[in-house]
Known about the structure:
By secondary structure, the protein is of the alpha/beta class. It is built from eleven helices and eight strands. It has helices at about 40-45, 75-90, 100-110, 135-140, 145-150, 150-160, 170-175, 185-195, 225-235, 250, 255-265, and strands at about 5-10, 15-20, 30, 55, 95-100, 115-120, 210-215, 235-240. The protein has an eight-stranded mixed beta sheet with strand order 1-2-4-3-5-6-7-8, with helices on both faces. Helix 3 links the parallel strand 5 (about 95-100) and strand 6 (about 115-120). The protein is globular and about 45 Å long. The model is unreliable at about 275-294 (pLDDT under 50).
Amino acid sequence: xxxxxxxxxxxxxxxxxxxxxxxxxxxxxxxxxxxxxxxxxxxxxxxxxxxxxxxxxxxxxxxxxxxxxxxxxxxxxxxxxxxxxxxxxxxxxxxxxxxxxxxxxxxxxxxxxxxxxxxxxxxxxxxxxxxxxxxxxxxxxxxxxxxxxxxxxxxxxxxxxxxxxxxxxxxxxxxxxxxxxxxxxxxxxxxxxxxxxxxxxxxxxxxxxxxxxxxxxxxxxxxxxxxxxxxxxxxxxxxxxxxxxxxxxxxxxxxxxxxxxxxxxxxxxxxxxxxxxxxxxxxxxxxxxxxxxx
Length: 294
């Protein structure tokens, strides 16, 4: 792996900013939420085991990575990330995906089964086939304004992020202010389009990597039932529920850093038997496509 610090890696003309924290063993690649630059995940980096090498990156159109010339999908992003890792000299990695970045992580694991060792899926779901957020939350998420306007970010934080943002919304605004450059409207639109045509639901059974699913029970963006569905369908998954919201893993990184580090350092658990859901299950698969009552 190349030296510590920020680097620009070019893959077929697309420049990607990466940040390296050196260490020993299998690197952890961080996949960020929609519209966010790599600085937003810095609190997690600071609280993870110092021996774990970490690679953070900006997807095209966010942070200091220029736009992609055309809209893209998650298969392309997984391919692009693989080529970036090639240039960094990384053969095998663990992946952590937060929210939108969880889709990148799932797709990478599916496309690169021998290259991805473990998965950490935080506040994420299965794409368009999921139990959706309330329409008011979805409307707020439709623009990147919160990344550019700290006052607006603080005003909406409680309603869309839940958890600790309900009592301390300024922490979320401060988190977004860490970014060197907020994502552009065009970059944000391309990310929205990627998520609008993707689902991992039919392929979850094929993701065989040990997976830690972290979900908040007070997450307005990703209702917790989605984590339960993923846990049911991922063969080697562990579900870690907490009473917080969508970004508590970042705003309360001191609590979650040891949980993630422990999972990455632990020995693989035995696979859980996967069974088809029955009529008596509280959360059924057909709930995925059913919108909540308004």
